[in-house]
Amino acid sequence: MVDNKPERLDAVFHALADPTRRAMLRSLSRQPCSVGELAAPFEMSLAAASKHIKVLERAGLVQREVQGRTHLCRLDARPMHGGMEWMRHYERFWNERLDALYSLLQAEDRAAAATRKPRSKR
Length: 122
Fold this sequence. Notes:
By secondary structure, this protein is mostly helical. The protein is 65% helix and 11% strand.
């Protein structure tokens, strides 16, 4: 089931709007990571990384599990499905418009070809 509530969709797009968070999701798509592992490529503090992870958690894209002192993060890609459905609607919208434009241009080309005078041979 797709959660198309505006608040959830807004949270997903907000989370995906930041390149650091997208990179974190890319890392999590390979394997679960600790907060430290997610922070390492960006040379950021654990507090800064945690703020990014909280945004991802609010969007439902990350699940955090505490194992002793370690916070292990896992990707949950299901909320992205709502965003994909939203984009597919507009993909269909633009494909229909572009198909109509293509048909119109082809009809104009055929009409122009039919009215052209044949070249005389010399």
